[in-house]
Design brief:
The protein has about 250 residues and is an alpha/beta fold. The chain has a 6-stranded mixed β-sheet with strand order 6-7-8-3-9-10, with helices on both faces. β4 and β5 form a beta hairpin. α5 crosses α6. The longest helix has 17 residues. The protein is globular and about 50 Å long. It starts with 5 loop residues before the first strand and ends in a 7-residue tail after the last helix.
């Protein structure tokens, strides 16, 4: 085990030529723990998360994970690399008409043949693991319920379990609590924190709630204007640092 699970070198992303959203971001992510990315809207938080697994294509720079630069991988090699990167989405990204169990097993689609996937035939060990993960996220007994019958918090629990089904070496979460009420948001962050510890993996979370970041993250990265302006533990995130990240003072009142 090395001291770095993910290394990002001089990452740049431009949606319009000459107007970078990310301006040469460089980061190293340890092999375990929760890292929160905070910053004002439009500063590149979601873009950074989505560049890592190339849901958004970087303009330049390198992203090193599992011994490869993800920015240079061809489609087949990228699909293989994505098997090791779990993703939790803001809007859950579940197949609404499928059951909870079927949604979880979709996390193993990269490991079974196309025919078996179409027939929804999965190895017994995958099914057993899915039941274990449902218990872990507090949804034991929900396996046969359709996804569209669940509450927002329950859907996000399914999303977390599905990501863990991949046996990832890294998990990414793109604003996983932004659609949830405060109580459910705390419960989801508790789940993510516990998953990082129990499965011994790093989880990188883009989030807008500073207090949740302070409470649950081991490390906080602050972005402003597409650049890293803060990178430290939650106890070092002072009001002065928050002013630097978000700009101005009025929002602190």
């Amino acid at each position: 085990m090395t001291d770095t699970a993910l290394r990002i070198d001089k990452l740049v992303k431009e949606y319009r030529r000459g107007v970078p959203v990310l301006k040469g971001v460089s980061l190293q992510i340890a092999p375990r723990g929760v890292t929160a990315i905070i910053g004002a809207s439009g500063t590149g938080k979601s873009t950074l998360i989505r560049c890592i697994n190339r849901l958004v294509e970087p303009t330049s720079g390198a992203i090193h994970f599992d011994g490869a630069d993800l920015t240079r991988l061809s489609s087949g090699a990228l699909r293989a690399a994505r098997r090791r990167i779990g993703m939790v989405f803001q809007e859950y990204n579940l197949v609404e008409r499928l059951t909870v169990m079927e949604n979880l097993l979709s996390g193993r689609l990269g490991y079974v043949s196309a025919l078996n996937a179409w027939m929804r035939r999965f190895p017994p060990e995958d099914i057993a693991r899915a039941f274990e993960l449902l218990d872990e996220v507090g949804l034991a007994g929900f396996a046969q319920q359709r996804a569209d019958s669940l509450s927002g918090g329950q859907r996000q629990r399914v999303g977390i379990a599905r990501a863990l089904m991949q046996r990832p070496g890294l998990m990414l979460a793109d604003e996983p609590t932004s659609s949830l009420d405060p109580k459910t948001s705390v419960e989801i962050m508790e789940l993510l924190r516990d998953a990082a510890a129990h499965h011994d993996i790093p989880i990188l979370i883009n989030m807008h709630d500073v207090e949740l970041a302070r409470r649950f993250a081991d490390r906080i990265i602050g972005l402003a204007g597409g650049e890293v302006v803060f990178d430290d533990g939650p106890t070092r995130l002072t009001d002065d640092e928050l002013k630097r990240i978000y700009g101005g003072e009025s929002w602190l009142q």
